[in-house]
Amino acid sequence: MEENNFDLKMRSMLESGQEEVPAGLWSAIESRLPAASSTVKAPVIWWRWACGATAIAAAVALTLIFAFRNDATPSVDIENVGAPVLAEVTEEENAALEEATAEIAPVTATKAIAAADKDVKAETVIVPETVVVPEAVEDEAVSEQVSEKTDPEKDWLAAYETEDFNENGTELKEKKEFDRHVKLAAYGDATSNTNPTSGSGNAAMMKKPTTPTITSIEETGESTYGIPVAAGVGIKIPVANRVSIGTGINWSMMTRNFSGQYNQVDEDGNVTSQASYSSIRNTQHYLGVPVNVYYSIINKDFVDFYAYAGGSANKCLTNRYTMHGLDGNINYKSPDTGWQFSTGAGIGVEFIVAKRFGFYIDPSVNYWFGTKNSANNLRTRQPFMMGLEMGMRIRL
Amino acid sequence: MNETYNHKLIESCKDGDRKAQKAIYDLLAPKMFSVCLRYCGDRQSAEDMLQDGFVSMFSKMDSYKGAGSFEGWARKIFVNTCLMYLRKNDVLKQSDDIEEARKLTSDVPTQMEDIGYKELMKMVMELPPGFRTVFNMYAIEGYSHKEIADELGITETTSRTQLSRARTWLQNKIKEKTDGRK
After folding, report:
1. Higher confidence at residue A328 or residue B22?
2. A290 touches chain B (CB under 8 A)
3. Which residue from A96, A169, A182, B101 could staple onto B165, CB 3.0 to 4.6 Å apart?
4. Smallest Cα–Cα separation from A156: which of A168, A173, A147, A138?
């Protein structure tokens, strides 16, 4: 009882005690504090810019696609059939035309029309504009003109020049062959980072350290995550019309900072030292193999717009911790170097700026899975992430 | 939550507002310096711990959710910072504690009211490190012997023994002081 009274008296006198703080201490503390909120806001700004760039790229791609759509519609070089202009005619006009021309050149006119119509809708009939004069069919001059335009030899030439027929005059099965080039790619990738501020880090914050059995890092504060970055090379192989498979190899780096304790344990399991650090930097390097299936939605000579889905397997090569102490830096290499896997999907656009060369941008959404001995990082803390891959492709 | 540490001030501090951090520092520093002095025993180490403690506290501000007293939450950070420093420097394994204890008697002082805070603080700082740490944790912070044992890597029996000897040591010092005044 007396002991308790003694303790209480001591506590009452000492617990709320105050001491005069040495001058200049705040300056020393201030110099060790991070810049206000910069680590949280920067990634948000970065991601906003990335979204903006993606939206602009998509808008430019779609504008180009639709702006050039009419030019891509096949037409007949009328010079080769003797008339300067082609025009679409209505069904009634077409009927009148057929009636008018039936007696003059029944076979050749039809062939010329059919040849020119290879890549347009079946119901659209393209004929020389000057022929649409039903009342003038008796006119000799017009008859000659029509006859000239439907000359079989010239019709074949016209069709040949539109590439609908081969040299022997045989109609090709498909006018436009889909892009079947194997492509090599080099790219960089960055991932969204929202710097989560709640979760396991909090729970560990005031946890009393347990006696360590191996040399280890014990986290006592929350982590601030850096933006994951990656770079790699790959190959994209067409396997069917519109469908390609892409794979390759990439390197990625994950970083984070946190406060914690470094426990050193010798071979006999004895703790040789324990030291706390307000800033421990963890850097992890991964080697990954992605596999994706691409489906080309719109493919033009200058742009390729596609969707893709797939996954990747990533092996942690190194998992290093750096402690910044007053007596220099201490480096610790963790044995936690497990695998991490992801699955994801996205859309992409490639701008083909030269015959065999293009730039692309691939935004994506990914989900990350860890294994038992996966190192802690942003992928394990925030498995659902957005990615932005940008690079160039060379056609072989 | 203590009104002094109002919600707005803490939230600003979480956002990294330097003025808010300075305001919190001004409020806490004298009390936390006292805590550091009690654990470290010398002013230089206590200053270092005060610095480390504030850096650690500001970096963990987001984990304070307002559930309990802000000052109590902050105090735990400073106590942990001091304990880590003591462990790191093997201060707790110094062997002179036992020898010091053998010289002690167990007279219980009755004139504690005559002793002021500064004199008492000086006595606590003069305690051998092992005694001082266990005494601070048990008598002032309210840790149990099991918690102390886990925290310091000692047995509960050792913790009890250290506490008992710390009390005896302090009681003798107080008695000497009060007897000297008579």
Report:
1. B22
2. no
3. B101
4. A168
Mean pLDDT for chain A? Answer: 71
Domain ranges of chain B: 7-88, 93-181
Q: What is d(CA A205, CA A258) in angstroms, rounded to the nearest whole number? A: 11
Tokens coding A296? 């080309």
Task: Identify the closest residue of chain A to B122 by CA–CA distance.
Answer: A14
Residue B113: partners with Cβ closer than 8 Å, 6 or more residues away: none
Query: Which residue from A10, A28, A221 is facing B59, i.e. has the nearest CB?
Result: A221
Tell me the H-state helices in chain A: 2-14, 25-32, 38-67, 91-101, 106-116, 140-149, 152-161, 200-205, 378-381
pLDDT tens by residue, B115-151: 888 999 999 999 998 899 999 999 999 999 999 988 8
Q: Do B34 and A14 touch (CB under 8 A)?
A: yes
ipTM over cut 0.95: no
The domains located in chain A, with CATH, are 39-66+178-395 (2.40.160.20), 78-161 (no CATH)
- Domain B7-88 in CATH 1.10.1740.10? The answer is yes
Distances (CA, A) of A111 to A83, A97, B50: 16, 15, 95
CA B125 – CA B169 distance, rounded (Å): 12
- Looking up tokens 């994209």, which residue turns up? A236
Residue A175's pLDDT band (cuts 50, 70, 90): very low
How do residues A269-288 score in pLDDT, each as one tens digit? 777 777 777 778 899 999 99
pLDDT tens track for B78-102? 999 999 988 887 776 654 544 454 4
Which residues 259-288 of A have a C-beta within 8 angstroms of B? 259, 261, 271, 273-276, 278-279
Query: Selecting from 1.10.10.10, 2.60.120.1690, 3.40.50.10260, 3.40.190.10, what CATH number does the domain B93-181 have?
Result: 1.10.10.10
- The closest CB to that of B51, out of A10, A28, A274, belongs to A28
User: With contacts defined as CB-CB under 8 Å, which chain B residues touch A222?
Assistant: 59-60, 62-63
Return the top range by mean pLDDT from A133-137, A282-286, B7-11. A282-286
The pair phi, psi for residue A302, each rounded to 5°, is -110, -10
Interatomic CA distance for residues A193 and A381, integer angstroms: 11
Residue to substitute from A16, A278, A279, A323, interface B, most B β-carbons within 10 A: A278
A313 within 8 A of A355, measured Cβ to Cβ: no
Higher pLDDT, B11 or A66: B11
Cα separation of A166 and A159, whole Å?
9
Token pair listed for A80 = 């080769």
- Candidates B47, B77, B167; nearest CB to A6: B167
Burial class of B99 by CB neighbour count within 10 A (0 to 12, 13 to 18, 19+):
exposed
Which of A6, A36, A273 has the CB atom closest to B17's CB atom?
A: A36
Confirm or reject contact between A206 and chain B (CB < 8 A): yes
